[in-house]
Amino acid sequence: MTRPDRETGPEAGAEAGVRPWSCSRPYRDGPSGVVRGPVRSRTAALVPGQVRARSPFPFLLRWSVFLGAGLCWEVAARARRSVYFPPPLRIVRHALDLWFSGPARHLFLSSDAVGTILPSLGRMAAGFALAAVAGIALGIAVGRSRRAYALCNPVLQFARAVPPPALVPVFVVVFDVGTPMQVASIVFGAVWPVLVNSAEGARATDPLRLQVAAVLRLTAPERLWFLILPSALPRILAGLRLGLSLSLILMVFSELLPGSDDGIGFTLTDAMTRSDLLTVWAALLLLGALGYLLNTALLAVEKRLVGPGSPAGRTV
């Protein structure tokens, strides 16, 4: 019961200088427990049209750590004057002069960049695309069948435990040295995280939704498109992120082998042969930048498809 001589509710709070309440929910009045109406929690509500500003502190903190580490390296390298550890500014300047000093109509790519970066990215893109298509298709097929999953799971666990570099001699024998061997090694290394995560995502589809789909008489393609793929999408994207990082690693490793004549890995080997340590550091810087940019692009696609609060980071 409320006292008749006292005004209650959000209007009274507004007159007393208290902010309006938000997050309405029902309440029970008195000992009878009768639900009377909404009571608003004591959380400040946003004014209509007002957007809560995002704090730039995490972004600034992340890059401040990176810049601080680079600054410490710069100071230490200039103090020691070591040939093996050049200053970061010198490495960045050398990388820009080596690969990004071309004309604007060529996106500032130099002739060395065309012969170094583009072949590597082409091989990695081909291998990653094949691994993604095969991994998603096989993973969904295996995950939707209990018998197939029980039969294939030991093979999958064994195959993904084998380090892909250990199979490079087999690929050399089968495909010979060259682009086919390099693409095959990338596919073999990147397909397993995509396949296993796709299978686990397909298995995690809500059975109740599948029962509703059966009641509605949805066809198999409709169940796949409207139920199974959306349910497995966070796991699929997590597997794709793992596969992308493995593709970059295997791309470099396959180009380090004898017989390669272009690519970032070949540039590393050639620079080490000539004791050109500045180019070695520039290639490492380029690989780090490529990995960061590719992962950021895939994260943007993930947030676009499943939202920022998805459980896509859970992998198997």
Task: Provide an overview of this structure.
This protein has helices at residues 10-15, 57-80, 88-99, 111-143, 146-161, 168-175, 179-203, 207-215, 220-255, 264-273, 277-306; strands at 21-29, 34-44. The protein has 316 residues and is mainly alpha-helical. The protein folds into three domains: 10-44, no CATH class; 56-85; 88-306, MetI-like (MetI-like fold), CATH 1.10.3720. A two-stranded antiparallel sheet has the order 1-2. The longest helix is centred in the C-terminal third of the chain and has 36 residues, at 220-255. The model is unreliable at 1-51 (pLDDT under 50).
Question: What is the element layout, followed by pairings?
Answer:
Blueprint: H1 10-15, E1 21-29, E2 34-44, H2 57-80, H3 88-99, H4 111-143, H5 146-161, H6 168-175, H7 179-203, H8 207-215, H9 220-255, H10 264-273, H11 277-306
Antiparallel strand pairs: 1-2
Helix pairs in contact: 3-11, 4-7, 4-9, 4-10, 5-7, 6-7, 7-9, 9-11, 10-11
